[in-house]
Write a structure and sequence with these properties.
The chain is an alpha/beta fold and 358 residues long. It is built from twelve helices and 14 strands. The strands form two sheets. The chain has an eight-stranded parallel sheet, sandwiched between helices. Helix 3 crosses helix 4.
């Protein structure tokens, strides 16, 4: 097969698809990358007008996407990220399009966006040949609206190169926590400070390292000082997530919703427990320790109780091999032929399939 991998930015392809593409190539398939910006790890066709955030300039991308598909003689296009997936389905063409949905861009219809995005996605489904979902909420949404058509559920997402996330030795000394993500509305870094303030009020000795960047980081740094958390909480920018997990006893995650939070899978692979809220995508992570959404006091209380009881230091019992990227690569490769050529007549055509953690 000649497979096209498309995302809004080259960084998304770098982050999620390099190992998967190499696995497909090792089986004799041709893989072509395309995005709105260049990749660092491979050569990609840059599509003018394609970006992460939709605007009028993206109309330029329609012809570029069509030309890319024809020039590469693609048999199938696997598209990730909301803007890229919408545009390639609108562009049309001869190659079937599989929407690899890392996360539908709404949670529980609480906001205007939560009401608008479902309407847009429903309008695009007739132009969609197959769906790949990662969390149970999105899987149910597609099952109700894409019934009888090809669907694949990957419960470990794109997976990990486990060599990059070895089981770490337990850190010594006081409790060390980390928060890793984008300083944005959806990731809610302010809630991490609320958790830290609750822990601090109990008299517990701990440190919280916040790793990442985004529009709210300057505000968070100022709030650390104003709330008397200097020397306890740091937010110094981006860094090595695996190294941060290695020097931490636990991960704190505060997102409003997720597709399937990769950092929590990385934490699980390294044997580092995760504390988070019970929201879409997050609730699908095995062994995550959850409290009601937004209840920072309850989450802090659980962290404190687990630390003082010693439960937080107990080894995590999980088959980390289930997180290897090979499961996603092989699962998708078995799925795609049902969409190519006469695949609709194959046993997999039109059926929902699943690739789950063992």
């Amino acid at each position: 097969m000649r497979i096209g991998l498309l995302a809004s930015t080259g960084g998304m392809l770098d982050s999620f698809f390099i190992e998967i593409a190499e696995s497909w190539r090792s089986h004799g398939h041709d893989v072509s990358f395309a995005a709105g910006t260049p990749m660092d790890a491979a050569r990609a066709t840059v599509i003018p007008g394609l970006s992460r955030r939709p605007d009028l300039r993206m109309l330029r991308a329609l012809s570029g996407l069509s030309q890319w598909s024809k020039r590469e003689s693609l048999d199938v296009i696997v598209t990730n990220s909301a803007t890229a997936s919408a545009l390639v389905r609108l562009a049309g063409g001869t190659a079937p399009v599989v929407y690899f949905c890392h996360g539908l861009h709404w949670n529980e219809t609480r906001s205007i966006g939560d009401r608008v995005w479902p309407l847009i996605e429903r309008a695009l489904l007739p132009r969609t040949d197959g769906i790949i979902s990662l969390n149970s909420d999105d899987q149910r949404w597609f099952a109700a609206r894409f019934a009888g058509r090809p669907q694949l559920h990957l419960s470990t997402g794109v997976g990990l190169d486990l060599l990059d996330y070895p089981v770490r030795p337990l850190p010594e000394g006081p409790l060390r926590l980390c928060w890793i993500g984008e300083f944005s509305d959806r990731k809610r870094p302010h809630l991490a400070l609320d958790i830290a303030a609750h822990l601090h009020s109990t008299g517990l000795t701990f440190r919280l390292e916040m790793l990442g960047d985004g529009e709210f980081r300057p505000e968070i740094r100022a709030e650390i000082e104003s709330r008397g958390l200097s020397g306890i909480v740091t937010a110094n920018g981006t860094g090595d997530a695996a190294a941060a997990l290695e020097r931490s006893h636990a991960l704190v995650h505060t997102s409003q919703w997720e597709g399937l939070p990769r950092v929590m899978l990385e934490s699980l692979a390294m044997g580092c427990p995760s504390y988070a809220f019970d929201v879409k995508g997050v609730r699908d992570i095995p062994l995550a320790r959850l409290t009601a959404d937004g209840d920072t006091e309850a989450l802090a209380a659980r962290i404190c109780a687990d630390w003082t009881s010693g439960r937080l230091l107990e080894p995590i019992s999980f088959d980390r091999g289930a997180l290897d990227y090979s499961h996603a690569a092989d699962g998708i490769l078995r799925f795609l032929p049902s969409l190519v050529g006469n695949g609709a007549d194959s046993p997999a055509g039109g059926e929902a399939t699943s690739c789950r953690m063992s």
